[in-house]
Amino acid sequence: MPYTRCAVCKYFRRRCAPDCVFAPYFPNNNPQKFICVHRFYGASNIGKMLEEIPVQLRANAVESLYYEAKCRIQDPVYGCVGIISSLHQQIQIAESQLAKARAKIYFLDAKFTTVESTSSLDKSLIHQNRVDYVLDDPFNTLFY
Amino acid sequence: MRSQVPRSSSSCAACKLMKRKCTSGCLLAPYFQADEPKKFAMVHKVFGASNVTKILNEVPKSQRQDAVDSLVFEAEERLKDPVYGCIGAITSLQDKMFQLQHDLAVAKARLARCSTRTSYASCSTTSPFLLFDGEFGVSPFDNFFMDEGGLTTQFHQHPFP
């Protein structure tokens, strides 16, 4: 079986031990991943972080570090905090729009309920032929 | 006899932590004051001092404070959540955004039904409200706008499928 070093050990030109903490997460066919992460975090910090995390979660930790590093490359000032800030703003806008939509629904519902109840009142008044009542009804303009 | 020159106590938090002399040209001193040692300690633990210096060197001076604030935030999140860091916050905000978009779509559909219902109702009756339609037909929300597809976000993909 040919000996292959992980991307980290290849970068540092050192022997890749069988129990290398980086090897499962930085395969040698993707050197860019380590270069990206190493640029911001440093290999020893990454190694320390991985050692403090349960084995089953290390892959996710590496992916999140990689993602944050890519964000920082795209936006050297804000990194992924720029995305968080942008999401907060969008959520604020969406919440405001939703509140307006719900208020408008309430308004239209109330309008429909008033129209319906007035129309059923009209019908019952016509049916009962209660002219005097109709004249007293302030909303009925048919007789004005 | 001891020297009468007073000991300098103006080292920034970075130089204090790294036990080195803080010079007048120290890049980190303006952003890591001596009275905030924890701030630099967090950033140092996650990124390392030399990486922070490199990052700040790549950023215009006017934006360095913002860069430091974002690094401090990221470091804080990473220490709180060593596995996901800021990505955890992004994921939960995205989930909230998806829920809001869904709620907006439901509200939009309901608005469309309400509008149809009220216009049919006002047309099909001899209600006196017909005469007031100009007044009641103009709602306080006529300036309200909702785009067709709901809100868009620049963060279209979930980071971890």
From TrEMBL, chain A:
<comment type="similarity">
    <text>Belongs to the LOB domain-containing protein family.</text>
</comment>
<dbReference type="Pfam" id="PF03195">
    <property type="entry name" value="LOB"/>
</dbReference>
<dbReference type="InterPro" id="IPR004883">
    <property type="entry name" value="LOB"/>
</dbReference>
<feature type="domain" description="LOB">
    <location>
        <begin position="4"/>
        <end position="105"/>
    </location>
</feature>
<protein>
    <recommendedName>
        <fullName>LOB domain-containing protein</fullName>
    </recommendedName>
</protein>
Automatic annotation (TrEMBL), chain B:
<protein>
    <recommendedName>
        <fullName>LOB domain-containing protein</fullName>
    </recommendedName>
</protein>
<feature type="domain" description="LOB">
    <location>
        <begin position="10"/>
        <end position="111"/>
    </location>
</feature>
<comment type="similarity">
    <text>Belongs to the LOB domain-containing protein family.</text>
</comment>
<dbReference type="InterPro" id="IPR004883">
    <property type="entry name" value="LOB"/>
</dbReference>
<dbReference type="Pfam" id="PF03195">
    <property type="entry name" value="LOB"/>
</dbReference>
